[in-house]
Amino acid sequence: QKEVEQNSGPLSVPEGAIASLNCTYSDRGSQSFFWYRQYSGKSPELIMSIYSNGDKEDGRFTAQLNKASQYVSLLIRDSQPSDSATYLCAVISSASKIIFGSGTRLSIRP
Amino acid sequence: SAVISQKPSRDICQRGTSLTIQCQVDSQVTMMFWYRQQPGQSLTLIATANQGSEATYESGFVIDKFPISRPNLTFSTLTVSNMSPEDSSIYLCSTGRNYNEQFFGPGTRLTVL
């Protein structure tokens, strides 16, 4: 079992719809969770961080964390073509190590 | 967030040679990190570079292969030594508060022939 798992995609979503990206992690003691966006040929950029159970909203983005079920998700409302990218989930483990998932490729179709 | 630059942006090298990658931050930062992203794969942390102390390497990475310098609070270098084609990758430096909220440089794309 991978420490941080993501569906590699591609996930194809029509413009204007909600894109839902999911990530599961194996270390129950993990405390900090992040979503990074990486455009092709570019470096990752942080878009959301979440530390406690529940939802955290920032503009069109909502991060959801459920520690009991060991998953974290990212919702993108009103998806735009500019949201097409690879989304990386990152987790700080109980050993204070940062672990990235392999990423989900998101494609927003006009 | 800090602005980070890296040099070179890309390079093509012969096996057996070494390449030093530079990372410059526009503000003083305590922690700098070096990552590798191999084609089609995610990020793997190589080491953490703290000013005034030896770098801390992650499992699978050793100082002889990836020596790191951190002479001050705005600069670090990563050397990829005795390169082989398996070292072909994108190398990224980053800063952040511990591992939280990492800010990445533009990366160095390395191809080893």
**Shape assignment of chain A:** globular
| Helix/strand structural class of chain B | mainly beta
- Poorly predicted runs of 5 or more residues of chain B: none
Oligomer: heterodimer
- What profile does the largest beta sheet of chain B have? 7 strands, mixed
The topology string of helices and strands of chain A comes to: EEEEEEEEEEE
* Low-pLDDT runs of chain A: none
Summarize the amount of helix of chain A as a percent range. Answer: under 10%
- Note the total helix count of chain B: 0
Molecular shape of chain B = globular
Q: How many DSSP H or I helices of chain A?
A: 0
The greatest inter-chain interface is formed by: A-B, 19 and 17 residues
Protein structure class of chain A: mainly beta
Average pLDDT, all residues of chain B:
93
Biggest sheet of chain A: strands, sense, closure? 6 strands, mixed
Taking all Cα atoms into account, the compactness measure Rg of chain A is 13 Å
Q: Which band does the percent of strand residues of chain A land in?
A: over 45%
Keywords:
heterodimer; A: 110 residues; mainly beta; 6-stranded mixed sheet; 5-stranded antiparallel sheet; 11 strands; 55% strand; globular; B: 113 residues; 7-stranded mixed sheet; 4-stranded antiparallel sheet; 0% helix
Please, could you describe this protein's structure?
The complex is a heterodimer of chains A (110) and B (113). By secondary structure, chain A is mostly beta strands. Chain A has strands at 4-6, 11-14, 19-25, 32-38, 45-50, 54-58, 61-66, 71-76, 85-92, 98-100, 104-109. Chain A is built from no helices and eleven strands. In chain A, strands 2, 4, 5, 9, 10 and 11 form a six-stranded mixed beta sheet that branches. Chain B is mainly β. Chain B has strands at residues 4-7, 10-13, 19-25, 31-37, 43-50, 56-57, 68-72, 75-80, 89-97, 100-104, 108-112. In chain B, strand 9 and strand 10 (100-104) form a beta hairpin. Chain B starts with a strand and ends with a strand. Chains A and B meet through strand 4, strand 5 and strand 9 of A and strand 5 and strand 10 of B.
